[in-house]
Amino acid sequence: MFAEGKDTLIIYSYMYGPQMAQSCVSCTSILDALDGEAPPRHAAHKLAVIAKSPIARIMELTNGRGWRNLRLLSSADNTYNHDYHAESPEGDQLPALNVFVRREGAIHHFYSTELLYVPSEPGQDGRHVDMIWPLWNLFDYTPEGRGEKWYPRLSY
């Protein structure tokens, strides 16, 4: 998953497991934005998105959303989601962002968004991946903030 000269890998865990009727609306909103912002081939970092669903199901969703720049992978046949805190003990999917680095031929886990496991303030959703979500960051600049007027959906 690493490439020559690209020794940092960013992986977003997409909440779209095989038992889910539809993908997570918040994750989908994040990925809608990241598709346009995905680093070009010449960037210093690699970006991948991993979902627990089989790859054919992921690609069907991808095509329907018009995503063209995200590298989407399936973790259906491995323990990645469990190993990197993107799945509860009951098998529920959780959003997570992990960063891996390659140094001297070895791969190291560098960072994980662990704020999900800290109780949220009353009335607030968890904010562990918000730094990569342009829409929420834009709303944070307004007097109303995120408010309760809008929440992402899969279609509008």
Q: What does it look like?
A:
The protein is α/β, with parallel strands linked by helices and 156 residues long. It is built from four helices and five strands, in the order βαβαβαββα. The chain has helices at residues 25-37, 55-65, 80-83, 134-140; strands spanning 8-14, 45-51, 72-74, 96-103, 106-112. A five-stranded mixed beta sheet has the order 3-2-1-4-5. It is globular and about 50 Å long. The mean pLDDT is 87.
Helix and strand topology:
Layout: E1 8-14, H1 25-37, E2 45-51, H2 55-65, E3 72-74, H3 80-83, E4 96-103, E5 106-112, H4 134-140
Parallel strand pairs: 1-2, 2-3
Antiparallel strand pairs: 1-4, 4-5
- If you compute it from the alpha carbons, what radius of gyration comes out, rounded to the nearest whole angstrom? 16 Å
The amount of helix comes to 10-25%
**Sequence of secondary-structure elements:** EHEHEHEEH
N→C terminal distance: 35 Å
Percentage of residues in strands? 15-25%
Pick out the low-confidence regions. none
Mean pLDDT: 87
For the report, how would you describe the main beta sheet? 5 strands, mixed
Neighbour order of strands in the largest sheet? 3-2-1-4-5
Number of H/I helices:
4
Number of strands: 5
Shape: globular
